[in-house]
Amino acid sequence: MKQMKGFRAGLVLGMALVAGAWLLLLAGQAGRAVPTSQWVEQAYAKKLAAANAIHQPKLLVVGGSAAMFGIDSGELEQAFGRPVVNLGVNAGILPAYIQNYARQVIKPGDWVVMPVEYPMFHERYSINLPFIDYWWSHPGFRHMDINIAQLAQVLWVTPVSRVLSGYRGIPAGFAVSGLYGPQNLDQRGDQINTQAARQEIWMHELVEQTSIERYGDKANTWNANWAGWKALADQVTAAGGCAVFVPPPMLDRPAYHQGQELRYYQSLPAQARSHGLNYVGSPLQTLYPMERFFDTNYHLNAEARTIYTRQLLEWTRPVFSACR
User: Fold this and answer.
1) pLDDT tens across 123-150, in order?
2) What number of helices (H) and strands (E) belong to the chain?
3) What is the full DSSP assignment across 30-93?
4) pTM of the full structure
5) CA gyration radius for the chain?
6) Which domains are present in the chain?
7) Can you list the positions of beta strands (E) in 76-201?
8) What's the rounded Cα separation, in Å, for the pair 152 and 263?
9) What are 261-279's pLDDT values in tens digits?
10) What tens digit of pLDDT does each residue of 16-30 get?
11) What are phi and psi of 308, to 5 degrees?
């Protein structure tokens, strides 16, 4: 009996030591920049600088990469007669960061259009690898960047490779390259070089291979993030501006037109309005065929960007006209 108790005590002590060592390793690399999230960092730096350089009421686009690829900010600028900055970068860093970046540049009289990707409405306590990667470079609870449930998950599932990357930091001479990052953004923050003719075979294959999204399965109330978006919209309104939510562009699938998934897309606008959001448009009208996408099921090519932007204008013109 004494041997068993001693074994259990030793086991508990050993586990505590391992957990403590892991927490110390995590803490030692917190706040350090890493290469994998630099494209997000630098894209936001460029967009925030563009927004802060504007000294008159403007229109901000807030969302993830669906907005970055999907909106022609120049066309919005021409239609509404005010400067436009597209703040869309990456939905993977989750709503709190996206909302905080928007708050940094919202000024009195600004209008904000939000083509928010669907999971950002109902995954309040969820995390993903892009979020883990980004959060360790920006740790803390400031402005509710993370909640307790998310923190517990981050501490549990952070890969060892991410910890090692944090200790290594940014290599000398590192520069963001590839499709994503400031090098492929125009002066308003829109993604460039996405014409259909530029799509490579591997990009088309990525679109083809994307999973069918099952948002109807996830749209439960305990994990909802409606309050976060309403708080942002209320801030815009309190500053004398106007905020409106619209459906994002997304790759169409037959599964989205039947059963639970169809009910989800049909009911989402009314559900958003019931939580105090000014939501206009129909998600079923921004589900597009495969030939309109560039490299993911949320990233339109340049030609389809025009189609989506004109649909967005049709929905938002009455809202913003009433704000004048």
Assistant:
1) 888 888 899 999 899 876 554 567 788 8
2) 13, 6
3) TT---GGGHHHHHHHHHHHHHHHT--S--EEE-SSHHHHHH--HHHHHHHHTS-EEE----GGG
4) 0.91
5) 22
6) 36-323 (3.40.50)
7) 84-86, 111-114
8) 33
9) 999 999 999 999 999 999 9
10) 676 788 788 888 898
11) -65, -40
